[in-house]
């Protein structure tokens, strides 16, 4: 008997990490641009100040700060923050993915800090091969100052410094940029980046150009919404000026945003120009003053594409790259609350500032229409004010409904073009329902104006309402109509004679897109007769609806045409009437139609010249 083989216990092993590869991956592939190294250094310094203030709660607000220095050959960031002991350096600085900001025994809450992942410092390898840190801990005042040098290959050294090396608590990080990173580390650029990322930071930050000895505060003033102003007018002018400075346009209006629950403040700038529907703009998002993203889309719903915002929030969570926000419940609630704020602004304008509302709708009616389709409240507030194309020109629906008890609406722009002139001559009020949202919105008018009636208008309905001609005229015109039908048979077009206003319109071409598609399909089925496609297309066949050319008996040209005796000229005149009516409908012409228009024009010209000679 053979003994069962007992498998040897599996040995526990540990992943091997190629440090150089890991550092390269995190530092080069997480961030969008090398410039973020400065944001990460500033953020670490600011987080260290936050920890220091928690440690020394009685210290005055501006007691601890951050100082940046650059001279073209080095960038130095010095802070009066909480600092590090040698043990801290091993644990936090030298361990990728370890962050002091997650440690549970901390008095501060994790939410007090901007950082949390323990990888931000690696971004320094985007511009330098070595990170040099000197630090003294405020938590352990007796501990000596410590020096750490971390290199891009994953190696590092630590040593304690002599007692006099750094007397005050805090940390200094020095980078010696690589030759290829000069663009990001020259003094003027460091200053510009510090202002870009740090202009709203709440701790004092200064910049010094060591070469020319100049220095300047990076964030000399609080955020514009945190300042006090002599009057409400001065406040709104200052906020608009700030919007113009950051976005490069003068806002049509500036909406203040304030959500105390998440410590969010900021402004929404209403764009002064139309934006293509659906195109979303990025917003500038600061967290605890630090600029995280200029292109954050996620703080507002899609319909809000008529504003760009600058916000500063306490409790939104950035992702590891820091260039977007975590999609969590807080973000969803913020989005909802900000949307509510924009709605309230629209409601206020509709209720009490018709001038502002008019300017807003002139530019953004498309955005508002897309919003009104899904939002009953906006629909109720704004539908009467929205502009539509109608047989009375461009007008608001409210105005239009006042003169037309029954509002007729077409389902395509083409149909509107075909029948607008005739319908308005007959006293009918028609709205062009062919543009996105328009037909749907017009049909909802009775919800807010119960006295209004809305009905669809299609070409067939209108044709039925055109007056027939008397029997005698019909008989006299029969030969011409037969010839015209024969000439236009290639376009599947019937020809009829009616009387309608305006008399100046010689002919109407009644056709719809569906009818044209149906005719194309039938034609293909005929061409493919017998084949697989012929069977399939044939099975789908319906009675192919025909186009209709309706000639206007009231029009002098038509009267002259039906009396033409010369058959060639009669054919040409029918073609010319068809071509003119097709052009008036402004739909794209088929190649056969374009050549028909060409041919009939040249024939008529030749005829006229022959007659004159
Ligand atoms: N200026 C500083 N002062 C004190 N401690 C610092 C400073 N800079 C870095 N540290 C320490 O090094 C740790 C790692 O920093 P790093 O920037 O890599 O990550 P983080 O800030 O914790 O998180 P994130 O990756 O989200 O930025 C920090 O948690 C902190 O303990």
Automatic annotation (TrEMBL):
It comes from Streptomyces daghestanicus. PANTHER family: HEAT SHOCK PROTEIN 90 FAMILY MEMBER. SUPFAM superfamilies: ATPase domain of HSP90 chaperone/DNA topoisomerase II/histidine kinase, Ribosomal protein S5 domain 2-like. It comes from the Bacteria. The keyword Chaperone applies. The keyword Acetylation does not apply. Gene3D superfamilies: 3.30.230.80, Histidine kinase-like ATPase, C-terminal domain. Belongs to the heat shock protein 90 family. Keywords: ATP-binding, Chaperone, Nucleotide-binding. This is Molecular chaperone HtpG. It holds the Pfam family HSP90.
């Amino acid at each position: 008997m053979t003994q069962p083989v007992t498998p040897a216990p599996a040995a526990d092993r540990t992943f091997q990490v190629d440090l150089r590869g890991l550092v390269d991956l995190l530092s080069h592939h997480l961030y969008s641009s090398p410039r973020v190294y400065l944001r990460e250094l500033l953020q670490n310094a600011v987080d260290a100040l936050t920890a220091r203030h928690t440690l020394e709660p009685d210290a005055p607000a501006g007691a601890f700060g951050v100082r940046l220095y650059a001279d073209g050959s080095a960038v130095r960031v010095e802070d009066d923050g909480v600092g590090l002991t040698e043990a801290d350096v091993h644990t936090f600085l030298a361990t990728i993915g370890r962050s002091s900001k997650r440690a549970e025994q901390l008095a501060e809450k994790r939410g007090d800090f901007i950082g949390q992942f323990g990888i931000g410092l690696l971004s320094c390898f985007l511009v330098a091969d070595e990170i040099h840190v000197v630090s003294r801990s405020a938590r352990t005042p007796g501990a000596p100052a410590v020096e750490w040098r971390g290199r891009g290959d994953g190696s590092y050294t630590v040593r304690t410094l002599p007692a006099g090396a750094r007397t005050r608590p805090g940390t200094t990080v020095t980078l010696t940029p690589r030759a290829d990173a000069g663009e990001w580390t020259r003094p003027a650029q460091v200053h510009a980046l510090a202002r870009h990322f740090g202009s709203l930071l709440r701790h004092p930050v200064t910049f010094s150009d060591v070469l020319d000895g100049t220095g300047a505060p990076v964030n000399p003033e609080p955020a514009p919404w945190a300042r006090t102003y002599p009057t409400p007018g001065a406040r709104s002018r200052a906020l608009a000026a700030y919007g113009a400075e950051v976005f490069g346009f003068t806002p049509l209006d500036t909406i203040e945003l304030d959500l105390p629950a998440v410590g969010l403040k900021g402004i929404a700038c209403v764009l002064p120009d139309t934006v293509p529907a659906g195109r979303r703009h990025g917003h500038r998002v600061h967290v605890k003053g630090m600029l995280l993203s200029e292109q954050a889309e996620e703080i507002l719903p899609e319909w809000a594409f008529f504003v760009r915002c600058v916000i500063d929030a306490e409790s939104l969570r950035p992702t590891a790259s820091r260039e977007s926000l975590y999609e969590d419940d807080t973000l969803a609630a913020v989005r909802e609350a900000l949307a509510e704020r924009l709605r309230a602004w629209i409601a206020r304008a509709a209720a009490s500032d018709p001038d502002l509302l008019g300017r807003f709708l002139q530019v953004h009616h498309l955005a508002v229409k897309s919003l009104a389709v899904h939002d009953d409240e906006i629909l109720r507030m704004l539908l009467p004010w929205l502009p539509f194309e109608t047989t009375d020109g461009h007008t608001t629906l409210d105005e239009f409904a006042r003169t037309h008890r029954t509002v007729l609406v077409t389902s395509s722009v083409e149909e509107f073009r075909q029948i607008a002139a005739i319908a308005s001559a007959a006293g009918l009020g028609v709205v062009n329902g062919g543009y996105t949202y328009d037909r749907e919105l017009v049909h909802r008018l009775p919800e807010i104006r119960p006295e209004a009636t809305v009905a669809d208008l299609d070409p067939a309905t209108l044709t039925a309402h055109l007056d027939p001609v008397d029997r005698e005229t019909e008989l006299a015109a029969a030969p011409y109509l037969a010839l015209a039908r024969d000439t236009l048979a290639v376009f599947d077009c019937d020809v009829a004679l009616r009387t309608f206003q305006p008399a100046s319109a010689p002919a109407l071409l009644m056709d719809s897109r569906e009818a044209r598609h149906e005719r194309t399909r039938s034609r293909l089925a005929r061409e493919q007769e017998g084949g697989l496609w012929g069977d399939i297309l044939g099975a789908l066949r319906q009675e192919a609806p025909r186009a209709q050319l309706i000639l206007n008996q009231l029009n002098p040209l038509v009267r002259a045409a039906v009396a033409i005796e010369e058959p060639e000229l009669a054919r040409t005149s029918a073609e010319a009437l068809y071509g003119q009516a097709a052009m008036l409908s402004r739909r794209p012409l088929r190649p056969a139609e374009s050549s028909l228009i060409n041919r009939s024009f040249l024939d008529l010209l030749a005829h006229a010249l022959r007659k004159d000679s």
